[in-house]
Amino acid sequence: MKTMRVVVMLVAASVLAKLGGLGMLWQASADAAGPQPAPRTTSESAEAACGSDGRGFRELLETVRAKAEELERREAALKARESGLVAVRRIVASEVTRLEGIAKILGITGEPGTGVSIAKVYESMAAEDAAPILDRLDDGTLRTVLARMRERQVGAILAAMNPERAVAVTKAFAGPAGQPR
Fold it and tell me: What are the boundaries of each domain within the chain?
């Protein structure tokens, strides 16, 4: 074990000595060649790679910068529009809730013969706007409302609802396994 360490140390010392000798030779050749130019900056290296004036690289770089700025502007505009839509959806949802409360006080439940069908009201709404409201209804009320709507609109509303709630509603509509409703 001790001899192994000695051998490793001798090999390391030999490598270091050779590297030192190469360093001295390199330094001597550098001194004989005369002064070296200063190292190039990144832009000088790019110019050298793209030709004497580097015009092609500069044009490419400017195009990339312009595209990045355009994408940042578009993203900011989309975020602003999205926050506006979220605010509008909240307002609509609260207004529908308020109107439902008024309808309940007035005794307008959407039952046949009352002149107002709450199902038609929800059917006329966008599915993304109706889903959060319908998500909060109890199963019986939700089933009554959805049963009076067109299948296409029910499908769109279920797609926009909370996934767990949509599964529960689907199971309620399907009834016990093996028995069609």
Answer: 49-107, 108-181
